[in-house]
Task: inverse folding
């Protein structure tokens, strides 16, 4: 019996990713060729990149199932993700970075996981996970943030930017994250019970640099405090329910 196709919108926010966006699209759709039950569209949300990323993305429309959302300026990763969600009319949603750091090799596992799980995410901390060229100071900052966020959610990598979900998970929610960790807000506020974590290789960026700065770290600290109070006030679900593994 043929399974119902999984109709997915994959959102990728962009700012100065001209060299990466075509490579990303090629990798994504080549990876999914052996999975005929996955019907995926790529939604590029470009924040008026000075390097012409938006125009390069528009050129991909003739070759792949790609949509492009052009925004007037750099409005933040969180709002870019929400703009992509708003553009989609499909039942499943996902997010991937445009800088090639998120390996598309695990896309079939992440998307097929939605048949059993409410949320699926790429994890940098699984038994077979690896982060290429992870500077010690960046690793330290990341581990501190991840440790705090785990206390709130129980998820293996609650700060992952590589994830998929059923639209119902965020139905009726007002997502307010202006920073780069919208997944954390979804974990705290969303309507879900089962999360699948899939280990992957977090690759070194090829043609761009990290957009994280002091402002983004301060925004994350602010988010963490807010979500802590939110969870205490709402008596959110026990973290143990998040501990499913690939």
Result:
């Amino acid at each position: 019996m043929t399974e119902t196709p999984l109709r997915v919108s994959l959102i990728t926010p962009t700012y100065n990713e001209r060299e990466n966006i075509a490579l990303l699209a090629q990798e994504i759709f080549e990876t999914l060729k052996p999975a005929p039950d996955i019907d995926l569209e790529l939604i590029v949300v470009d924040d008026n990149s000075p390097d012409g990323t938006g125009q390069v993305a528009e050129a991909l429309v003739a070759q792949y199932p790609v949509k492009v959302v052009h925004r007037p300026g750099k409005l933040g990763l969180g709002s870019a993700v929400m703009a992509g969600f708003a553009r989609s009319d499909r039942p499943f949603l996902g997010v991937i970075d445009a800088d090639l750091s998120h390996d598309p090799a695990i896309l079939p596992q992440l998307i097929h996981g939605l048949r059993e799980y409410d949320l699926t995410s790429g994890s940098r901390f699984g038994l077979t996970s690896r982060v290429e060229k992870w500077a010690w100071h960046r690793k330290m900052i990341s581990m501190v943030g991840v440790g705090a966020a785990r206390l709130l959610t129980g998820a293996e990598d609650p700060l992952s930017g590589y994830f998929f979900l059923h639209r119902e998970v965020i139905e009726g929610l007002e997502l307010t994250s202006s920073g780069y960790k919208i997944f954390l807000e979804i974990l705290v506020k969303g309507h879900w019970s089962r999360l699948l974590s899939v280990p992957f290789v977090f690759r070194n960026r090829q043609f761009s640099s990290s957009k994280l700065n002091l402002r983004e770290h301060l925004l994350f600290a602010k988010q963490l405090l807010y979500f802590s109070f939110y969870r205490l006030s709402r008596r959110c679900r026990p973290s143990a329910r998040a501990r499913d593994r690939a």
Summary: Helices lie at 18-31, 53-60, 77-87, 107-112, 136-153, 182-189, 214-234. The chain has a mean pLDDT of 85.
